[in-house]
Design goal:
Layout lengths: L26 H8 L1 H39 L2 H4 L1 E6 L7 H7 L2 H13 L13 E6 L3 E2 L14 E7 L6 E6 L14 E7 H7 L6 E4 L7 E11 L5 H4 L8 E4 L6 E9 L14 E7 L11 H13 L1 H9 L5 E3 L2 H44 L1 H9 L4 H30 L6 H25 L19 H32 L2 H7 L1 H16 L1 H12 L5 H10 L6 H36 L3 E4 L8 H6 L6 E14 L7 E8 L1 H11 L29 E6 L1 H7 L4 E4 L5 E9 L11 E5 L5 H4 L3 E5 L5 H8 L4 E4 H8 L3 H45 L4 H34 L6 H5 L15 H29 L12
Parallel strand pairs: 4-10, 6-8, 15-19, 16-18
Antiparallel strand pairs: 1-11, 1-12, 2-4, 2-11, 3-4, 5-8, 6-10, 7-8, 9-10, 13-20, 13-21, 14-15, 14-17, 14-20, 16-19, 17-18
Helix pairs in contact: 1-12, 2-10, 2-12, 2-13, 2-26, 8-9, 8-10, 10-13, 10-14, 10-15, 10-19, 10-26, 12-13, 14-15, 14-16, 16-19, 16-27, 17-18, 18-27, 19-25, 19-26, 19-27, 19-29, 26-27, 26-29, 27-29
């Protein structure tokens, strides 16, 4: 063996290698350095998707929490406060023991026991909660200086409530005191009244009010102060509104009225109530803390309220306070109204969420497919050199996780900062799902593609590859799921789905997505057939662009199902969401129109001033003011001995009113329909024959069914009568809403009955303030725009609409990204083809047409398929969708149920956008390829 002095083998060239073990280059670092742009693009995609996924549940939590707070705030404290009350102490107790039970110390002990029985998440607002003793049956106060509206003496309730000084400030005088121990026989006590009670009942500081005694002389109550509540709308005062302001009561028998007020005694003066006939009772009022509960606490709140009303909580209170203690509250009904509204809105939001989520997931899968396609040769070489599937899976998972995990964490952090004050768990779960999908998509796809060791594969164009049995089974499975979801939604609707909960709700929410999935699978199966049919005729055409573009479209990869799925899902979701939003706006507009009868309405309970219509017509923004007279309690009957049917008789000017009805599409009619006729059918006249002529009328359907076409009599509120005959039937009319109606010519009515009581206004921009100034006092001015705005009351509505719009926009953005990814995947091959064809004489204009025509079949397939799929999804799912909850939030609104209807713009605009984007990308690619030249594209050894 020969060698050299330095120990190297003879004949070797180059420097000597260092001795020791060889250190291989780290796989992950090498791959990231080799393709930094791809790693950055993946990081941006994962970060954006994780941020949107994490922000969605937090945004839903925020608007639901705001909706719950609005619901609790809108409900009066009298409804939300949980009130406990117990009768006077047991008569078997001695008088001293009974008196002690009504003193503040004993009541405070019971109050502590009540608070101890309140279970979380229900939390008491101790600052507004109260306790005390009161007379449950107010007694007469016969003092002459008290107000007597109709000569009847007022009645007063004696109330000894805790912390009066902390919740009021003296307007005059001082707070009442109980210096000596008060007993049932005390002859005089001190009291205070609120400013409203003092003003209404004519009470002053120093007044003495005498209350009847029980087996004793009347009790003298001396007023030592008049107090003003510090928080008049707080639960301390509004749980029992009588202590804040008196109430006027009307007797049902003779219509007489009298006042009921409250005299506020010192907190320790409760025992004196035992000496009055007012039936004293102890009470403890627990005001809930409305700032703390969140929407996901509603079920727990309902359980806690139920426990206090008739459950374990009330049992503990009865054990520690009094066995006869009872409870009452409307808080459970308030929570139930919120739950019903949320259950009506949540399924609609879920549809948008599932649609956008599906498109985002497809885009991530497409990005992984693009990376797998780019590295097909590399991974095939690794497998050919002995690389195992687990080894390839682990290396790809590691290099993807290094990029995706920090990006997912960054997206989660951005979502937490952008949408604070919401639950963390759902956001973390959503971001984690996105990160896991991004990590495993590339490894799984690569392992599946390279499970068999091979260097060269067969053709995979869409016109030559036949679907496998596995694919057929998978498509049939998805078809069954989609059919089940659509059938469930049509049968039960979103209301039933929202109340049932569980996986069935998710299946229903996925129904539009599954419809898009089925359409994508069907279109991919049908797509090769026209390409094969057109290939022959296209080859006989003159020119190279058309046949070559058609051949290129047929050579598209068979994996086109994934981008088509993204586009169809996005288009279906956009069409569905756009139609939902359009249906919501339409329902609000229609409900507001029915509530006002026109763009504006001015109405009074009496006849309007004669000069008012002219002043209103001169107001800025008013185009027309149509006067009508409405008698809401007219009695329609056939014969004198029959029972009357209450209906609204509307007197109109046939010409203007008929035109208004036609313009608003509210039961329009020609003016001749209301032409008056005499008993013989000839033209009638006004004046003395008003009561005898038969007047044509337009009636509501129920009146038409009852009276038919025979004449019948209608008695108005001023005892005048008119004989009418139903000449036409309309479901609605502008003048009245949700009432049976008869519309007649005003000329057929008496002069008094024909005087207008309402004006129906039309105009594009009505000024509410100017109209109210012109109308003056004593009239009601309602604008259609104001009524419509009032329907958007709950944050649940506005929040759901914003979320829905954002989800549809996100889905559309991801769909555009999916289209770009599909085009980018084929970009290298197209560029190379274009360069080769240019060397053969293809002009730049022909190159642009070639790329546009090549991409047009798939874009056209997605656009037309998306529009048809969106239309089909709306038609299939509309019978089960109720938009009333999100449109009017359970408020009284005419017009019935709001149903989903197809919106043409929502169908056409997204589809046209797909065509525009596809054409624009093809033109941009042709322009960019022309600028780069053909040399680079034709380099030998390029793998394209």
């Amino acid at each position: 063996m020969t060698g050299t002095d330095d120990g190297t083998k003879a004949g070797t060239r180059g420097p000597a290698r260092a001795s020791g073990p060889r250190v291989p280059a780290p796989w992950v670092r090498t791959r990231l350095r080799a393709a930094p742009a791809a790693a950055l693009a993946l990081a941006l995609l994962v970060a954006l998707t994780a941020a949107l996924a994490a922000a969605f549940p937090r945004a839903v939590d925020r608007y639901e929490d705001a909706g719950l707070r609005r619901t609790l705030d809108d409900a009066s404290p009298r409804r939300t406060t949980v009130q406990f009350f117990a009768p006077r102490p047991d008569l078997e107790l001695s008088l001293g023991e009974g008196e002690n039970a009504l003193r503040e110390a004993a009541l405070r002990k019971g109050y502590d026991a009540v608070l101890a029985a309140v279970d979380k998440p229900l939390v008491a607002d101790r600052a507004q909660s109260s306790y005390g003793v009161r007379t449950s049956d107010p007694t007469d106060a016969s003092d002459s200086f008290l107000a007597r509206p109709s000569g009847l003496p007022p009645r007063v309730a004696l109330v000894a409530q805790n912390a009066l000084g902390a919740h009021s400030r003296p307007a005059s005088g001082r707070l009442p005191r109980a210096t000596d121990p008060v007993t049932a026989t005390t002859s005089e006590v001190e009291a205070a009244v609120t400013t409203e009670t003092a003003r209404t009942l004519h009470i002053k500081v120093g007044s003495v009010i005498h209350v009847p005694g029980l087996e004793r002389a009347p009790l003298a109550v001396r007023i030592t102060g008049i107090v003003a509540p510090r928080e008049p709308d707080g639960a301390y005062w509004m749980s029992t509104p009588l202590i804040r302001e008196p109430s006027l009561i009307q007797l049902p028998s003779d219509g007489g009225t009298y006042w009921i007020g409250a005299l506020l005694l010192a907190p320790d003066a409760g025992p004196v109530l035992l000496g009055t006939p007012g039936k004293p009772e102890r009470y403890w009022q627990v005001a809930p803390d409305t700032s703390g509960p969140t929407a996901h606490d509603v079920s727990g709140l309902a359980s806690a309220v139920a426990a206090l009303e008739s459950g374990p909580g009330l049992a503990r209170i009865r054990e520690r306070v009094d066995p006869l203690t009872d409870a009452t509250t409307d808080l459970d009904e308030v929570l139930s109204s919120f739950t019903e509204l949320r259950s009506g809105i949540a399924p609609l939001v879920a549809v948008a969420a599932f649609g956008a989520g599906t498109v985002a997931a497809v885009v991530i899968l497409m990005a992984s497919g693009l990376a797998a396609e780019r590295r097909r040769g590399e991974l095939a070489l690794v497998r050919a050199r002995g690389g195992s599937l687990p080894g390839v899976l682990g290396r790809l998972l590691a290099e993807t996780a290094v990029v995706a995990v920090p990006a997912g964490a960054l997206g989660l952090g951005a979502a937490l900062l952008a949408v604070p004050h919401a639950r963390l768990s759902s956001a973390v779960a959503a971001a984690l799902a996105v990160t896991v999908l991004a990590c495993v998509a590339l490894p799984v796809r690569a392992v599946f593609a390279h499970r068999a060791v091979r260097v060269h594969g067969g053709r995979e164009d869409i016109a030559s590859v036949r679907p496998s049995r596995r694919r057929t089974v998978a498509e049939l499975t998805v078809l069954v799921l989609a059919t089940a979801a659509v059938a469930a939604l049509r049968r039960g609707g979103t209301d039933d789905a929202g109340s049932s909960g569980g996986s069935g709700d998710q299946l229903v929410a996925l129904a539009p997505v599954l419809v898009g999935v089925i359409a994508a699978l069907v279109l991919v199966r049908l797509y090769p057939f026209p390409l094969r049919r057109l290939a022959g005729p296209a080859g006989r055409l003159r020119g190279v662009v058309a046949p070559l573009s058609l051949a290129r479209a047929g050579r598209t990869s068979a994996s086109t199902a994934l981008p088509l799925l993204a586009l169809l899902t996005a288009l279906t979701t956009a069409a569905f969401g756009g139609s939902v939003l359009a249906g919501v706006h339409t329902a609000r507009d229609h409900a507001a129109l029915l509530a006002t009868g026109a763009d504006g309405r001015i109405e009074a309970t009496h006849a309007l001033p004669t000069a008012l219509p002219g002043r209103i017509r001169d107001t800025r923004g008013v185009r027309e003011a149509v006067p009508v007279s409405v008698a809401y309690r007219a009695q329609a009957r056939r014969g004198s001995g029959t029972a009357g049917e209450t209906a609204a008789l509307v007197g109109v000017e046939p010409g203007p009113y008929g035109q208004l009805s036609r313009e608003l599409d509210l039961g329009g009619f020609p003016a001749r329909t209301l032409r008056a006729t005499g008993p013989d059918g000839s033209g009638g006249s006004s004046g003395g024959s008003r009561g005898k002529a038969v007047v044509p009328a337009i009636a509501s359907p129920s009146l038409a069914d009852r009276f038919g076409t025979a004449p019948f009599s209608v008695q108005l509120e001023d005892d005048s009568k008119v004989t009418v005959r139903i000449a036409a039937v309309r479901d609605v009319t502008p003048a009245v809403t949700d009432l049976d109606f008869l519309v007649v010519d005003r000329e057929a009515l008496t002069r008094r009955a024909a005087r207008p009581t309402a004006l129906l206004l039309t105009g594009g921009h009505l000024d509410g303030a100017a109209l109210r100034r012109a109308a003056g006092g004593g009239v009601d001015v309602r604008l259609r725009a104001e009524v419509r705005t009032a329907y958007v009351h709950s944050p649940l509505q506005s929040g759901a609409e914003r979320i829905y719009t954002a989800a549809v926009a996100a889905g559309a953005g991801y769909a555009v990204l999916a289209l770009l990814l599909a085009l980018v995947r084929a970009a290298p091959e197209r560029s190379a083809l274009l360069a080769r064809l240019r060397t053969m004489g293809l002009t730049r204009a022909q190159g642009r047409r070639l790329l546009v025509l090549e991409s047009l079949p798939q874009a056209l397939l997605a656009a037309v398929g998306g529009a048809l799929t969106g239309w089909a999804a709306i038609r299939l799912l509309a019978p089960g969708l109720d938009l009333t909850a999100i449109a009017v939030a359970g408020r009284p609104a005419p017009g019935g149920t709001a149903r989903l209807r197809t919106d043409a713009l929502s169908l056409l605009v997204p589809s046209l956008a797909v065509l525009v984007v596809a054409t624009g990308v093809a033109l941009a690619q042709a322009w960019w390829t022309g600028r780069r030249g053909s040399v680079r594209e034709l380099r030998a050894g390029d793998g394209r």
